[in-house]
Amino acid sequence: MVGKYLARPGLAIMALLAAGVALYSLRYYGALTDRWLDVDPKIHAVITQVPVRALTHMLIAPVALLLGPFQFFSRLRAKYPKVHRGSGRVYVAACVIAGIGGLATAPSASGGPVAGLGFGILAVLWVATTLGAWRAAVQRQFALHRLLMRFSYAMTFGAVTLRLQIPIGLALGFSDYSAMSVWLAYTSWVPNVIIVALYSVTEALRRPLAPATV
Ligand code: HEM
């Protein structure tokens, strides 16, 4: 009961943070016309090195970040099921395209191979989980669909937790984003996945058992 009321403000805060990070990412459109607005010099170098891969990722991933939270509002889902399906398809397409772009960019990550490995693992899990969630919806396995979409968005939301962790890294003495990205490539998403796993297990344990049929 309490969880139900806490869930809505939680979702609203998640949507606001996601929108903030997604809108801030619009500055990467400037790269298409060689205008670099508040872009970290080492990320600038990554884009210069692998422009199609990096920009495919950086310009499309924000679409998934922005749409994701609205998919979890149960009232919206119940009232406008067609909107949920349409926006869900765009979310899946954005994750798959941006995930492939992220995977292709990972070997050039500004933080070096250890950071690249973290982002690479994330990309593979992100695409696989999202495609699994989509397949479950098509097969009308809605409990599995909901569970996998939670995991998918936990990874998408890594874009927000990564940026929230940057001030902490600076306070800890890292000189810039690239220096701390060896850690961020893991700490930005592993805790999110653990939180979703714990939440889902707790929810399953709380649910009353279905009455025996035999
Ligand atoms: C969840 C799977 C994701 C993977 C595997 C991934 C992977 C990567 C990689 C490898 C880089 C280059 C980092 C570097 O050179 O240090 C990068 C940067 C970036 N990614 Fe992602 N990313 C993911 C999610 C997202 C999402 C959801 C967004 C939405 C905003 C996003 C937006 C960006 C942006 C804007 C950059 C440029 C660096 C920055 O501004 O911090 N990524 N990503």
From TrEMBL:
Segments traversing the membrane: 12-30, 50-70, 90-109, 115-138, 150-174, 180-201
One Pfam family cited in the UniProt record for this chain: DUF2306
Annotated keywords: Membrane, Transmembrane, Transmembrane helix
Source domain of life: Bacteria
This protein's record includes keyword Transmembrane: yes
The keyword RNA-binding is annotated on this UniProt entry: no
Protein name: Predicted membrane protein
